[in-house]
Amino acid sequence: MKLRIALFAIGMAALALLAAGCAQQGDQARVSLREWKLEIKDTQRPSGEVVFLVSNNGAMRHILRIEGPGVRKQTREIEPGGNDVLSVRLERGTYDLFCPILQHRERGIAVKLQVGQPQQ
Known about the structure:
The protein is of the alpha+beta class and 120 residues long. Helices cover 18% and strands 42% of the residues. The protein has 1 helix and 9 strands. The protein has a 5-stranded mixed beta sheet, with no helix packed on it. A 4-stranded mixed beta sheet has the order 2-1-4-7, with helices on one face. A hairpin with a 2-residue loop joins β5 and β6. The longest helix is centred in the N-terminal third of the chain and has 22 residues. The protein is globular and about 50 Å long. The termini are far apart.
């Protein structure tokens, strides 16, 4: 048990250091994945580099995938309680953020992200 706590603390410290290094390169967006919800504070962002700080707050494995104009990137498979960082350059348009595992997207782990002003 103590080993698991120590490994978790080391993982969180490494994530914080990685996020601090990435933060200078782009805007940060915190994303929470869990059954059956994807949470992100702002669903509208300016174009540019975005560093997604992804936490799995659920009881199952999850992945964050981002698909949109010229982009199809994803995190590694994140264990429950785990974290990952994904840096993506986003241009103006609409992006789908979702978990591609099994039927997770269809069950609610999905959100649309609007980058820049929508075209009229």
